[in-house]
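Write out the 3D structure for:
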Amino acid sequence: MLHTALVEPEIAPNTGNIARLCAATGSRLHLIGRLGFRLDDRRLRRAGLDYWQEVDSHRHTDWAAFRAANPAIRCIPFSAHAQLPYTQVKFEPGDCLVFGSESRGLPADLLTTGPGLLPAVTIPMLGGKVRSLNLATAVGIALYEAIRQTEGW
């Protein structure tokens, strides 16, 4: 099983779409820190459609609580500011793909390596006309590459 962690996501429909993606792929969703919406937000529920009962989701008060609950998980942070392309990572079963908020990205301390934290990776964008991809799009790209590598899809 792969994991997707969202650190302080701000936009309910993005999180709802990611929850549906996690349900479709059998991945566990971790919501970490302060959310920019309520978990009963109708936009969150609408984006997740009627798949919420299929989502294996976990709520954590902060990064330390997430790590305490999941000490053995190898975490791969994604950032538009990283240099290493995600395609250069050898994903392993059980990895956690970590994404930051839509407006701020990941906190600086998650962009440096530490116990169980690999170097940050990026999804390359051609043309240099945009700063970053939509969060749900980025998670979809990364999660399906990790599944392709680990499950042979």
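The two ends are 14 Å apart (CA to CA).
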